[in-house]
Design brief:
Number of helices: 2
Helix content: 25-40%
Order of helices and strands: HEEEEEEEEH
Length: 152
């Protein structure tokens, strides 16, 4: 009887551990944030998106206001077309807002930072962000530094 109680208690402990790991994985991945809420979509074109991925954060002043919804290549413009899903309550972005791709930390994930402009018209569903700044590619920067070094 004592052995049976020990086996059941170890089984319950293992199940609680697995449930805790599952809960932690859900919290870390922000899976709850991926639900479709009321959003409007704007489009931005970039020459180079680096490692930007779908569901990457879209921020203004460091505050997340949306996510990257789609990334496709536009063969007519020869650029990456990035669709941003912005929360409906964040409808204050001027039409001349600038979108830049940044990296969170030295090796962190990439995200899009929006910098509001001064226009009186606001971005609406389906509009295009006209001013964009592509991701900085570390390999290109290192190559520029190495080619500009003085020779012997």
């Amino acid at each position: 009887m004592k052995l049976r109680f020990l086996e059941v208690s170890v089984g319950v402990f293992v199940l609680l551990g697995i449930a805790a790991l599952f809960y932690l994985a859900i919290q870390v991945s922000n899976i709850a944030e991926y639900r479709d809420r009321d959003t409007y979509h704007v489009v931005a074109y970039f020459d180079h998106i680096g490692g930007l991925k779908v569901r990457a954060p879209v921020t203004v002043s460091g505050v997340r206001i949306g996510r990257v919804a789609h990334i496709v290549y536009d063969p007519e413009r020869f650029q990456a077309r990035v669709t941003l899903a912005i929360q409906a309550g964040q409808d204050y972005l001027p039409a001349d807002t600038q979108a830049s791709i940044f990296t969170a930390g030295l090796l962190g994930e990439q995200y899009i930072a929006l910098e509001p402009g001064g226009d009186y018209e606001m971005l609406a569903d389906g509009d295009e962000v006209l001013f964009t700044q592509s991701a900085l590619v570390l390999e290109n920067m290192i190559g520029r530094v190495l080619t500009n070094l003085p020779g012997d």
